[in-house]
């Protein structure tokens, strides 16, 4: 039926979120969708793995060097995400992902695309800048299709990204590497107030010193996605025993709690798009602003 390329001029602009959100919208219009990650390198590998985790679209599960030969069948849309700054595919309609503010590079790419530019989607837009960004997209002839505001779920890191950032030792693997962590909680001094406090947060990581076994158990009992034990000392073996069969990943880091918290401060700015919760958030943002059926007809020509 049609192909659509998703482009950007800067890293972490939201191309994967847009591709996955569009794919879900087209599927709900009874269209078949293929997701392709064109390019090479660690970012392409990570995005291709993310595509493979979603069952609503077909995908090879690895990056492709050249997607130009990928034909789509009747009632099918092929969505192709390309590397940052990659040469746009000839003759293929494009959506431009713009993160936050419109840059000169965005405007130049839009001009270079010409009639191939279906429109642009801005991501991570601060609440007070929505109208200004929409105006800048329009003035830059970037044909705004949707604006996705700042979103806690889309920005949140996964359990796996927290583990990698801290270079932490895994004491127990909860098999939830892709689970989104929206809140990082520092455990209080005593366990009794900790339990009701922890229960207030659905998707959380809890930081607690190695010698606070009661707080470790409280984090596991309240279904923390991730328990980060700080200070480098060996926790009670009962903690790993209690975690067995639960969905809490237990990590050990050599840093004390304040240093661990500081180490995590940047992960929210470079978190990649992974997991079902981010996929649903991306779709909901686009569904409130886009007519997927009309967009599919436009792609079909």
What is the terminal separation in angstroms? 9 Å
Shape-level CATH architecture of the largest domain = 3-Layer(aba) Sandwich
Count up the helices. 12
Could you tell me the CATH topology label of the largest domain: Rossmann fold
Number of domains: 2
- Within CATH, the superfamily of the largest domain carries the name P-loop containing nucleotide triphosphate hydrolases
Instruction: Return Rg in Å.
Output: 21 Å
Strand order of the largest sheet: 2-3-1-4-5-6
- The low-confidence runs, each spanning 5 or more residues with pLDDT under 50, are none
Helical content class: 25-40%
What is the level 1 CATH name of the largest domain?
A: Alpha Beta
Largest sheet geometry: 6 strands, parallel
SS elements, strand count: 11
Structural class: alpha/beta
Strand portion, in percent? 15-25%
What keyword list fits this structure?
5-stranded mixed sheet; 2 domains; 301 residues; alpha/beta; Udp-n-acetylmuramoylalanyl-d-glutamate--2,6- Diaminopimelate Ligase, Chain: A, domain 1; 6-stranded parallel sheet; Rossmann fold; single chain; elongated
General description of the model:
This protein has helices at residues 15-27, 42-52, 104-113, 130-139, 152-155, 159-166, 191-199, 213-221, 237-243, 257-263, 276-287, 292-300; strands at residues 2-8, 32-38, 76-82, 94-99, 117-125, 144-149, 169-172, 183-186, 204-209, 226-230, 249-252. With 301 residues, the protein is α/β, with parallel strands linked by helices. The protein folds into two domains: 2-151 and 272-300, P-loop containing nucleotide triphosphate hydrolases (Rossmann fold, 3-Layer(aba) Sandwich); 157-269, 3-Layer(aba) Sandwich (Udp-n-acetylmuramoylalanyl-d-glutamate--2,6- Diaminopimelate Ligase, Chain: A, domain 1). Helix 1 crosses helix 11, helix 7 (191-199) packs parallel to helix 8 (213-221) and helix 8 packs parallel to helix 9 (237-243). The longest helix has 13 residues, at 15-27.
